[in-house]
Amino acid sequence: MYKFEVYKDKAGEFRFRFKAPNGEAMFSSEGYKAKASALSAIESIKKNTPGADLVDTTKE
Fold first, then answer.
1. Alpha-carbon span 3 to 19, nearest angstrom
2. Cα(53)–Cα(5) distance, integer angstroms
């Protein structure tokens, strides 16, 4: 099951990572001073990504 995991980094900021069913982290967030801000970012991703475009800036 895919999941978001909220944690505190060494600087004391809240971050989250998105994990695949095998436990591997697929991506991580920036640091947030408030836990509520990290949770809000997660909700925004859940709500706004179904129609997200892919932009490939590589030259291949």
1. 5
2. 24
Can you tell me the distance from the alpha carbon of 22 to that of 1, in angstroms, rounded to the nearest whole number? 8
Residues 10-26 have pLDDT tens digits of 999 999 999 999 999 99
- What is the rounded distance in angstroms from the CA atom of residue 40 to the CA atom of residue 32? 10
pTM here? Answer: 0.85
Give Cβ neighbours of residue 26 (< 8 Å, ≥ 6 apart): 17, 18, 19, 20
d(CA 50, CA 9): 29
Sheet (strand 25-28) strand order: 3-8, 14-19, 25-28
